Amino acid sequence: ISHLPPSSNQEEIRTKPDPTRLIGRGRYGTVYCGSLDERPVAVKVFTAANRQNFLNESSIYRVPLLEHENIARFVAGDERTGPEGRTEYLLVMDYYPHGSLSHYLSAHTNDWVGSCRLAHSVTRGLAYLHTELFKGDVYKPAVSHRDLNSRNILVKTDGTCVIIDFGLSMKLTGNRPARHGEEENAAISEVGTIRYMAPEVLEGAVNLRDCESALKQVDMYALGLVYWETFMRCTDLFPGESVPEYQMAFQAEAGNHPTFEDMQVLVSREKQRPKFPEAWKENSLAVRSLKETMEDCWDQDAEARLTAQCAEERLAELLLIWDRSKSVSPTLNPMSTTLHNERYELAVKPGSIYIDVQQSSLFNFVFSETA
Ligand SMILES: Nc1ncnc2c1ncn2[C@@H]1O[C@H](COP(=O)(O)OP(=O)(O)O)[C@@H](O)[C@H]1O
Ligand SMILES: [Mg+2]
């Protein structure tokens, strides 16, 4: 990207980041609460040193048809001269008062349905991001996120999520670069947040011959870790005991600031993954299916991982297979959720769900019984 995306000066004049209301700080930007026509907005401020990151993120938000319930809503991008005469870049988006999923999970626990809603909605956003679409003359390339983690996901007031932070994202289809030089290959494969890096990223072994699938698989690995963080705060999965405090994936194994080398040893060499707690040894269909879904996302073999579309279906099914006979079971009424998926309506017709706990291929089974 060689030039600044078209800016809307009108937005610039009306948008005022309030420097006293810092709401988040990441590696590339500082996020403030601001207002636009009295409406609260979030303003991500990039310094000139992070210009490339700003350009990339705004170019992703401007991808045609990117608007989606589970992707943060972009308002405007702009350039301005900051307080000390330095150039700054502003990215304006909707403000989500619950903040990041990580922050939300550290303050809240959720029941099974609530946890499924969080996980399902993130997956739905990612599946949409990963999809190449043609709508009449309009073309949406497939996009990989490349820095998916629980800080780059925000929670909406209805208990569903949106994905944010496209600073490292890449369009995967459309104007595919023909051949990359070695330097560029490293740039393509070695990005993200260390804790959430897939084994092939840690090994510098991302399969760039099929860049599109490979980069989607890297996102899926990180999604598996996000599921673990989410369900570790699920009250229904810890019956009769208190839910553990929120933990980031690998926090127990690698602490708060793991190095690249730490993660290489843990994830690539020792093939470790976040541990399932004692309480999840219980052999119920829901717990087994959930663990299987996580394992199928963070598989060592990138090509064996679920696609986001497939994970989305699994999460929709998980929401329905909670054992109703359990006293701790939430009132399972998926119709009352805002998950818009026709299969829910099919699946919740009385008498339409029959689950054989002995079935090994749980998901195929549930799917074929309800479809
Ligand atoms: N629209 C928003 N509403 C509320 N909080 C936000 C919003 N955007 C970002 N944040 C907070 O700011 C943090 C940093 O934002 P992010 O876009 O991830 O920046 P970076 O690229 O520096 O990581 C997020 O983890 C989140 O806590
Ligand atoms: Mg971030």
UniProtKB/TrEMBL annotation:
PROSITE patterns: PROTEIN_KINASE_ATP (PS00107), PROTEIN_KINASE_DOM (PS50011). GO terms for molecular function: ATP binding; transforming growth factor beta receptor activity. It is an enzyme of class 2 (transferase). The keyword Transcription does not apply. Residues 1-10 have a biased composition (Polar residues). Pfam families: Pkinase. This is receptor protein serine/threonine kinase. It comes from Neogobius melanostomus. The lineage of its organism: Eukaryota, Metazoa, Chordata, Craniata, Vertebrata.
